[in-house]
Every structure is written in structure tokens, then in C-alpha cells.
Amino acid sequence: MEPLNLPSFAYKVKQVNGKPSIFDIIRRKFVSLTPEEWVRQHFIHLLITHYGYPKSLFAVETGLKYNALAKRTDIVILSGDSLPFLLVECKAPFVPINETVLAQIGRYNFTLKPRFLAVTNGLNHYCFHIVNGEIHYLDDFPRYREHNP
Fold this sequence. Notes:
InterPro entries: HSDR_N. This protein is α+β, with helices and mostly antiparallel strands. It contains three helices and nine strands.
């Protein structure tokens, strides 16, 4: 897998049914090591180790309904009151962060209404929140303790 613009971590990789797999500390199992999963696992570790998010508040690859269509979110972090706090859309490093990706997370925002949204392809990362239909980009990701006392 290619190097990312994210801190490295002590990952566990092994072959499962002849395919490379990486251990997901949230789902507590080995999952197929795709380029998108490589980004997701790095981002999970970033949020835990650098931003203080408790593992117990993560939901990874959970379903949601949007206009009767079944969709899957990459990472949702819940607040202490179990409401969506941060929604993260992960893409493979070769997928550019463009209008299509922003529209995708915007659709998920419509359903989940988290306080913050983020998109990453492991090389470029953006975090923002939407207030009265306006996107407000942040310089950094929110730290858990600053927004969940």
C-alpha cells in the first residue's frame, strides 16, 4: 500500500482466504485490505490517538437509508448522547476529493445530520460543518474533549 499523508500506526496484516487483510480495531476483525480500507484504518487511528476519540463511539461501515436507497457510511463517531457527531467519508488515494465526493457526504449529512463532516483520500483531508446551508471549512479536525465535555 502506498504511503499516506497520515501518521503511521502499528497495523496488523495477514492473508485471509488468500487475500491481504488488515485488523480493524473497531470491528475487532480482519477485513479485506483495499486502498480505501488502508485510508480508513489510518484515519481511525488518527482520530483515536491524536484527537482523543474513544473507540466505543465509533461505527464503521454502518448502513443508512437515503431516498429509500441503502447506503453505507465509512466512519461515524457518536457524541456522548449517541447522536452523530462526526461523519467521515474515506476514498482510495487515487480518488480525487471533488464535487462528487462532497455531494456524497452531503447526502449522508441530510440523513444523519452530524455536527461535523470530513472527507479524506489519505493524501488530502477536509473537515467542515454546515450551518444554514453554508459550508464552513475548518483548519483542523475537532478534538473530542473540546466538543464533548
